[in-house]
Design brief:
By secondary structure, the protein is α/β, with parallel strands linked by helices. It has two domains: 6-140 and 300-348, Quinone Oxidoreductase, Chain A, domain 1 (Alpha-Beta Complex); 143-296, Rossmann fold (3-Layer(aba) Sandwich). Helix content is 28%, strand content 24%. It is built from twelve helices and 13 strands. Strands 8-7-6-9-10-11 form a six-stranded parallel β-sheet, with helices on both faces. Strands 3, 4, 5, 12 and 13 form a five-stranded mixed β-sheet that branches. The protein has a two-stranded antiparallel ribbon with strand order 1-2. Helix 4 (141-150) crosses helix 6 (182-192). The longest helix has 12 residues, at 302-313. 44% of the residues are buried. Its cofactor is Zn(2+). This is Quinone oxidoreductase. It holds the Pfam family ADH_zinc_N. Residues 16-347 form the Enoyl reductase (ER) domain.
Amino acid sequence: MTIPQTQKAAQVLSPGESFSVSIRDDMPVPEPGPNEVLIKLSCTGLWYAPPPTFSSFSSNVRAALNWATYNPIIGHEGIGTIIKAHSSLSSSALASVGERQRNTSRHVPGTLQQFVVADARFLTRIPAGLREEVAAPLLCAGLTMVGAIDKLDSSVFLRDAPKDEEEGGFWVVISGSGGGLGHIGVQIATRIKGYRVIAIDSGEEKRRLSLECGAEAFIDFKTTPEMDVSARVRELTGGEGAHATIVVPGTKEAFEMAPNVVRNMGVIVCVGLPRNEVELPISATMCAARGISIIGSSVGSEEQMTELLQYALDGRIEPVVKVYEFEDTADLINGFIDDAITGKVVVKIPQ
């Protein structure tokens, strides 16, 4: 195809409380450098973790609100076709990965544009037959959750815990269960791992989605006081609490709740992204006395990504996706801030 010199892109301007999103059509099309390829994008997911309070958001909203330094072009769940490669690209070069980590939409421009340059060593082939709008959310939201849930396998206590219902089952609490990450996590935990999930979120729509994805119970944190949430979890789990909890919302309140919903020797997996100054509000004495493990989880491996895409192709994992136009980007980010969006958002890239 003929590659144009300029392209359409969405830029975040004046990051902060008065941010805006500008749709421009005069952005230069980049040239791939060593080990890089140029990709013509067809769609991109927008990352979103639901907030119990105003202090918890995804990387896209963190960028808009200037909570950390991001590239003006955000987005990092892009799907597209390679249309050009750098002349130095070779199989031997692709086998060598030793550079410092560079994150899409932070260190390099993101996927809310028509063309993007990417390091060929970190691309994932999308299986034939898998719809692009289904694959896109799995590239970050899905991989984040499978990476977090797979970390439970390394716990000796959890590995030896009974998995079948006759023995009580392996209980996992997933907070933020109705959001873009959470609802995929519920599916992975129940359909792939066979865990029994207690979902925590708010609102009837997120209750319905969480239960449809496989959760055995739903607790609405907005209508249930914190101590009643933990009491309800203990009631469901035979008085012990869950074996583990995945904390998707990155708020102080969500992390304060975490040790109260797990049993002694339980595991807390930290996924959410709060403001940088928010620290874990958990007593060191409590961790030691109760034997609680705290694990941080960012994303997952290439092997996990390949497996997850195959699960989607087989129909075992089905992200709930709403597809929007490119011009809706600003409204979508504001919708994230207002916690007005359920499931996963995918934006169509102009062709």
